[in-house]
Amino acid sequence: MIPNVSLPHLRATRSQLKADLDGILADVQAAGRKNLTADEEQRFNTKMDEVHAVDRQIDDAEETERRGQRATEIRARYSPNAAQTPGLTVTRNESTYRKGDVHGHSWVKDMSAVALRADADAADRLRRNTREVAQETRALSTTDGAGGEFVPPMWLINEAVTLARAARVVADQLRPQPLPPGTDSISLPRVATGTATAEQTSQNTAVQNTDATTDSVTANVATIAGQQVISQQMIDQSPVNMDDVLLADLTADYAVKLDRFVISNNATNKRGLLNVSGSNAITYTDATPTVGELYSKGADAIQQIHTGRFLPPDKVFMHPRRWAWFTAALDTAGRPLVVPTANMPQNVLAAMGDVVSEGFVGTWQGLPVYVDPNIPTNLGAGTNEDRIITLRSADFLLYESVLRAEAFRETKADTLSVLLRVFNYAALHSERYPKALSVIGGTGLITPTF
Q1: At a CB cut-off of 8 Å and minimum separation 6, what does 23 contact?
Q2: Higher pLDDT, 128 or 81
Q3: Which residue, of 55, 95, 234, 410, has the fewest CB within 10 Å?
């Protein structure tokens, strides 16, 4: 706590504190670092608190000084005779209404006297008080040009708001593979039609002879990249590491774009899950859809993988709005059809885990459900449908290399700029086993109402 001392002493104290702050920053710069250590940050914050405390005392002292000067000017302007009278010194110009003056006049009483009795003396005192207040106040505000420059904005750098972006939920639930180097496509041999066996009709007769046929499936390597040019001045002068902030944002956007590539891409040898040729398409058509009716479609999606792939699916993906529609559904008795697993539910349509915006949320038809905001909601004839994806995740391979995040000064040296770049290579094998994928669509999956 800074003691209450004279204005010159306060200003000297503030100068010393700012010199201490500059010293801390100089030590950091001399060490070749951009960030403060924990001890340096604590000392820096302590000094800043002291600076703010001194600034407040300086403001109070300067305001007191300004009021004294203004009072002197007013006395000189409105009491000229007093200043010219020999031996007479004006020590105080009393206000008409003074706080705590029990023997003086009351503003409230004078207002009442004027209103009730039209008291002329009370009216004179009110008018005199109005003139006094007009001389002591100024028509200033927080508007620039009218005093606003003395109320600067406060920038809380440590609480900077980053852009909200979705995660790569579906992409992270497929079977991950490292991308092989030195190629732009990945081909896998496949047995197209298989061999056959049959009962031997009689001994010493030919057994079944069916030749297998083969083909291949190919996934082309895609490049997902982004860049941002930033001035050298912003990197040097900003109190936060703007290169880190922007590279982190580019990386977050890469995650979104990779996830959408996995879900929705529609190009030869780059098919996203919603565009796999030969997958199981389940249509739910209903002008007034209900969760209860959709439940059977979920069972159909599962059984088609059972009968087409001959192995069980293990995951379900849907948009957060679809799962919210599930959790809002009630039976005819007003009871929720989806209840938290903590309640030990029995005979429920689905069970809800943690309340999250993306990722695992619960189970449906015995399978874990993941919600992903990157699942499109503008599909169908009315561009207002989403999709429910059921699959056997091990049958879908996502090849991905190591993400590169880079900064280049040389290429932008003539403009004193820095180019930030993020890129990566990825390939998706989504058509190895088309029957391992079921997609529920139709008018029953339009924008839900709550």
Answers
A1: none
A2: 128
A3: 410
